[in-house]
Amino acid sequence: MGCFPEKRRKTLTLLTVLVVLSILGLVIICVVFGIAQAIGTKNAVVIDAGSSSSKLSLYQWKDDPFRTNALVQQVMQDKVKPPISAFVHDPFGAYGVLEGPLNRMVAGIPENKRSTVPVYLAATAGMRLELLKDPLSTLDLFDVLRRGLLKSGLDVEYPNERFRMLSGSEEGLYGWVSVNNILDKITASTQVSSERTIGSLDLGGASTQISFAPRQRPDSEKAAVDYYSLKLFGARYEVYSHSFLCYGKDQFEKRVHALIISSTSPSQNPIPHPCFPSGYTTSSKDANSFFDSPCITGAYAEKTFSKNPIKQPGWTTVQFVGTGNPDACRRTIEEQFNKTYCPTSPCSFNGVYQPSVSGAFRAYSGFSYVMAYLFAGKSTGFTKTEVMNAVRKFCVTPWNETAGTVGPSEQSIVAKYCFDGLYVTTLLENMGFGTDEQWKTITFGDKIDGASVSWALGYMLDQSGYLPSDSPKLNLPVAAFVPLLVIFFAILVVCVTMLIVIMHHEKEKEAFHEDSEH
């Protein structure tokens, strides 16, 4: 082949360089994409130390190194009784209850990876009550639990910021996050406006929480004390969240029992009880067990309810017999709500500022159980009148008629649905759901598409944004990889084609010159 003109020589050199660079580019972006996509998973354990039980949850998410919050999913859950609040004076016994379920939960995680799995323990209203009774022993319990959990091989942080008392407002706030995450309102791919989020109504054993995104924030600092600014997946939300300690279903029911005992002579046993169906008789219990809570007696109860029940001398054991009187039961319940004191309007009850409820709500835990029984197969679209009529009908139905429809093991639970129904309706009224139309905005249910609703999921979703990633910090999403691949491949094809054309053209010229010489 003869000497090419200088211009063609430069063109060939440039095309050759571009071919080499495009091949290198293809190799590099393929390698980077492969590494970027090789993202592992991360796990964490959350122990929800509630007032009646401890729930252990194992969570998992994609370990994206550039995440703000992770797409957290619950992969396993277990529940153990008694709650850790029962071990304030036997702290080593508390870990003994948790140890077996915890070991089973992490059994599927390789031992060499367990040290990277953080464990969180957050105690809620049950422990907040114990803190009122015995602060030092309650705090000691957390330290003993931390030392016990060190034996699990999991990542137990020291100092133990991951082991703490969760405030009532935090409990409500994380419940709100859980509801909106499960309902796909706030996820990695979707962040709806505040007006389209779903409010959260949680009724536990010792406290109840209401959390929602109001239309506007109040000007008063005192009124805004229950407002929280929360950033999730890059979007910011202003959420109102308030918790009422002692207004959980178990503690409030105990208070009603104590009030009825205190107003009855010890000579009248069993005691007539309006909140049980007519003819239902409870088993005998130690009378002191109804008066041993900070929600019944003591300074906190007096501050919250203004009047405490007093156990009369002579009461040793107590037994109740139902009279099925919903009006009398409701009066006793309503007396525990202070609707007259309201320093900054509007208020829910007990002088607590609460903006007017707006939007849709999800009611779960204690709110949902009685509704599932009274309205099997229905979870939303209720009116207040419809629910009240169903509750009243259940209360006045003689127990012998109801007992024949439920198994022996469920009878003690079902018998409480008269009180539960009256309490749920009264509580929701006091939280601002006073009309039939407002009730229609509530959907009741303890699960959403099979996922349990609790504060723990929201808590873990929030915490996932603070945990370091173990994945390589390379980011090449498919949306960027495919165009780059096409561009480099196109450059390669064009350059190779041009080289072939030029080389072919030069060969033809060379052949033509040779023929001319002959």
TrEMBL record:
Superkingdom in the source lineage: Eukaryota
GO-annotated cellular components: plasma membrane
Pfam family, one: GDA1_CD39
Record-listed ATP binding positions: G205, A206, S207, T208, Q209
Keywords associated with the record: ATP-binding, Hydrolase, Membrane, Nucleotide-binding, Transmembrane, Transmembrane helix
Transmembrane segments: 12-36, 478-502
ATP-binding is among the record's keywords: yes
Active-site residues, record numbering mapped to chain: E171 (proton acceptor)
GO biological process annotation, one example: nucleoside diphosphate catabolic process
InterPro entries: GDA1_CD39_NTPase
GO MF annotation terms: ATP binding; GDP phosphatase activity; ribonucleoside triphosphate phosphatase activity; UDP phosphatase activity
Record family assignment: Belongs to the GDA1/CD39 NTPase family.
Protein name: Ectonucleoside triphosphate diphosphohydrolase 1
Protein source organism: Calicophoron daubneyi
